[in-house]
Amino acid sequence: MGKYRQQWGISDEFREKVEPLIPAPPRKPASEYRRRPGGGRKPLPPRQAFVAIVFVLRTGIQWRALPKEIFGSPSSIHRYFQQWHQAGFFLRLWQAGLAEYDDMQGIAWQWQSIDGAMCKAPLALEKVGPNPTDRGKKWKQAQFAGGRAWHPVITRRQRSQHA
Fold it and tell me: Most exposed among 15, 19, 99, 142, judged by the fewest C-beta atoms under 10 Å?
């Protein structure tokens, strides 16, 4: 993993805390799984998939831009991400992190505050005025029924005739 492991790597201590939370791959209990010779790629180790997912989330790169030589197939890693998300892995990881932080530092659960807006400010237009990009637009002009006010004098021209 070289350079990427050093910059975006995950400590062994953190990895040990995460591994029990990683969901097992979905399998049918009655089925017997045997890998046929030449039957495709071996599945990625969950540890490698987790490191790649953290790399994507921390750097913000697209899934397809993942270095294949280092992390493996980007589509496989994205599939792991989707499966783990549906299984609730990231929620459990967040909850475990909160619980550990609560044990270490303590979280004031009784007093929490949140700030945000989910709608436009009702008095904003009066204070700031119209949007400057709307200047000069002809909103109030009626559109002609045919789409344009003028029509060509010649209805059509024969392509074979030269003007």
Answer: 142
